[in-house]
Amino acid sequence: MAKAVWSNTVIAESDDTVVVEGNHYFPEESVGKEYLVQSDKQTVCPWKGTASYYSIKVNGEVNEDAAWYYPEPKDAAKEIKGHVAFWRGVEVSA
After folding, report:
1. Sheet holding 36-45: strands in order across?
2. Which domain, by its residues, includes 38?
3. What is the pLDDT of residues 5-44, one digit of tens each?
4. pTM for this entry
């Protein structure tokens, strides 16, 4: 079971993550949407496509752009469509 924790709060938990480049991508339905705030940030990966970001908000604390996802990944990364990954101090354990 993989788990994403920030500020002593479980943000996501799943036994069905997809691991790409060492990052666990959690299925959207396993992520606590109440902790996510849409961000304007976007980045581009040459083989995965354009990533969009969420900030994480827990008990009034905000971790800017700490989660990302690919709304329309390229064919090479199609397995991560509908999945969310974390960084910036979010502890992911498996």
Report:
1. 18-20, 23-27, 83-86, 61-69, 49-58, 36-45
2. 2-93
3. 999 999 999 999 999 999 999 999 999 999 999 999 999 9
4. 0.96
Name the domain count of the chain: 1
- Token pair of 25, please? 């991508």
CA atoms within 13 A on the CB side of 87: 7
What is the torsional sign of CA 23, 27, 29, 33?
positive
End-to-end CA distance of the chain: 6
Give the CATH number, domain containing residue 26.
Answer: 2.170.150.40
Assess contact for 49 and 78: CB atoms under 8 A: no
The Cα 12–Cα 39 span in angstroms is 18
Place of tokens 């996802």: 69
